[in-house]
Sequence to fold (191 residues):
Amino acid sequence: MPNVVEPSVRVNRGPAAGPENRRALIAAAREVYAEAGLSAPFSQVAKRAGVGQGSLYRHFPDRTALAVAVFEENIGDLEAFASDPERTIDDFLDLVADQAVVSTAFIELLSADVADPRVKHIGARYREAVELLLERQAASGRTPEGFDVDDVLVATDMLAAVIARTPPEGRADVAARARRLVHSAFRPATR
Fold:
């Protein structure tokens, strides 16, 4: 009797697959939008993640929701980083630049939706991480006099904007240049 090959059947795991699908969609979004920018079709994210479009829209009804999910992970990384007492604003901005290099499409998207409450929440968490670092650094005398949280936020915006405007092949170089400038601005004045 010949061997019969059963067709592969994808089993629908229902709600149990939700968290795994969400993680797969976020990872796929990072890849798709890093490669093609915001012009990539939203459906491409679902395809790359290996899930149906229904699953994509259940988790992320629009591009902003997806961008916020990506930045929720980024902010979590930044908060953990900032909680280490050995970290400085310079270290923090290095990580921000690294994240910006691979998240430029999301930066553009969130910059266009700054009034969205989901985006404001991300901004508030970012500000708290910066405040923690600045307070600790100021207490040790390692912050230039007169520098405050808003200065760091402006530096971050400038850093992210220049990286986002640069073609992918030049982003790492531009990020390195921008970091050098920011590092020199955040050095305490020597007397």
Observations:
- The chain has a mean pLDDT of 85.
- The chain has nine helices and no strands.
- The domain at 62-191 is CATH 1.10.357.10 (Tetracycline Repressor; domain 2).
- The two ends are 91 Å apart (CA to CA).
